[in-house]
Amino acid sequence: MDRPLVITSDDDLLDDLLRVAAAAGAELDVAHVPAHARPYWTRAPMIVVGSDVADALAATGPPPRHRVMLVTRDPDDPDTWRKCVAVGAQAVLELPSAERRLADEFADVAEPAVRAGIVVCVVGGRGGAGASVLAASLALTSARRRLRTLLVDADPLGGGLDLLLGQEEAEGARWSDLVAREGRVSFTALQAALPAFAGLSLLSFHRGEAERIPAEAMRSVLDAGQRGFDLVVVDLPRVPDPAATEALGRAVTTLLVVTADVRGVLAAAQVLTELRGHTGEVRAVVRSGVLDDEVVTTSLGTPYAGGLPDQPRLAAALNRGDAPPIGRRTALGRFCGSFLDSLGGSPAGAEKTGVRR
C-alpha cells in the first residue's frame, strides 16, 4: 500500500510530522528535496509539503493533484498563502494548532473505512426493564451471524455489561482507559484493545467509582465503531448525558424497553420525552405484563418493535454468570433475530456487505 509523502528539509518539522503520523497509525515516505518526490507524486494517497521547500517544489512544476497540504510552524509568514497556491495545495495547516486535523488526514489514508456500521441504542423505560439484557442479546445474536459487532456500555450506573455477560475478568481496555481520547481512534487499535468473546468486542466500565464518559470520547469510539464494525449496540442510561446524546444522534433506531404495567408506561413516557429531543426513530419493546402491547404503544405513540414474554430461566442464567439464552427457541432469541432482519443483516450478506442502511 502506498504511503503519505512528506516533503521537507526541516528536521524539526519532520519530527513533528512523524510524531503525528505515528499517533494516527500511519507510516510516511519522506523526500528531503523536491527532486526526490517525483516518483511518489502521483501515487502517494496524500502529500504534505513543508513551507521550507514550497518554492523549490513549485519550481519543478509538479502536476496538479488532490490531497496536497502545506504545513508551517510560522503563522506570521506573509508568504504562506502564495506558497500554498504555488504548490497546488488545498489547505494550509499551521502546527501545532492543526495537529488534530493532520492526524485525522493521516488516519484516513492509513485506515480507510472498510464498513459502514450502523448504531442501535437501547434504553429502559424504567429501572429493571431489561434494556441491558436486550442490548447484550442483540450484540451476541449479531456476532453469531458473523457480523462484526461492538457492544458499548454507556450507563455508568448500570452495573457493567461485562458482569452481565460473565466477562468481568476479561483482559482489555475499559472506559477509564479511553475517556481522555479526542479526535480519531483507529478501529483496528480499538478492536485489539477491547475484550472480545463470542465474536463481539465489548467496551464496558471498570469496577469502582462511576466515571462519566465525555462526549468527545464517545464520539471517537463511535467514529471508529462505524468505520470498522457492521453493528454498534449502545446500552444507554435512562437520562441522556452528553455521551448518550452523542450516541442517540447516530442511531438508526432506538429501542425503548417498556414493562406492560401502568407505572412502567408512565415512566417510559418520561424517558421518551428526553429521547425524542436527540434521536429520530424510537421503537417500543414491550415486556409482558397486565396491559396489552397495543395499549402500551398507543399510550406512548411509538411504533411497535416487538414483545418479550418472561423467560423463567433467564434470571437464573444471568446470576450464574452465563450469557443470556438467545437460542432460536427462546423469545429473546427470536426477537433479536427478527429485529436484525429488519435492519437488513444476514449471515450470508454480512461477509460481503455487512448490515445495510
Structure characterization notes:
α5 crosses α13 and α8 (about 215-230) runs parallel beside α9. Helices cover about 40% and strands about 15% of the residues. About 45% of the residues are buried. The longest helix has 14 residues, at about 130-145. With about 350 residues, the chain is an alpha/beta fold. The chain has helices spanning about 10-25, 55-60, 80-85, 100-110, 130-145, 160-165, 185-195, 215-230, 240-250, 260-275, 295-300, 315-320, 330-345, 345-350, and strands at about 5, 30, 45-50, 70, 90-95, 120-125, 150-155, 195, 200-205, 230-235, 250-260, 280-285, 305-310. The chain is elongated. It has 14 helices and 13 strands. The protein has 2 domains: about 5-110, 3-Layer(aba) Sandwich (Rossmann fold), CATH 3.40.50; about 120-350, P-loop containing nucleotide triphosphate hydrolases (Rossmann fold), CATH 3.40.50. Strands 8-9-7-10-6-11-12-13 form an 8-stranded mixed sheet, with helices on both faces. The protein has a 5-stranded parallel sheet with strand order 2-1-3-4-5, with helices on both faces.
Oligomer: single chain
N-to-C span: 29 Å
Tally of contiguous helical segments:
14
Q: What percent of residues adopt helix (DSSP H or I)? A: 25-40%
User: How many beta-strand runs?
Assistant: 13
- Strands of the largest sheet, in order across it? 8-9-7-10-6-11-12-13
| CATH level 1 name of the largest domain | Alpha Beta
User: Which fold name corresponds to the CATH topology of the largest domain?
Assistant: Rossmann fold
Supply the CATH superfamily name of the largest domain. P-loop containing nucleotide triphosphate hydrolases
Task: Please summarize the sheet with the most strands.
Answer: 8 strands, mixed
Question: What's the overall average pLDDT, rounded?
Answer: 89
- How many distinct domains? 2
Structural class of the helix and strand makeup?
Answer: alpha/beta
Protein name: Septum site-determining protein Ssd
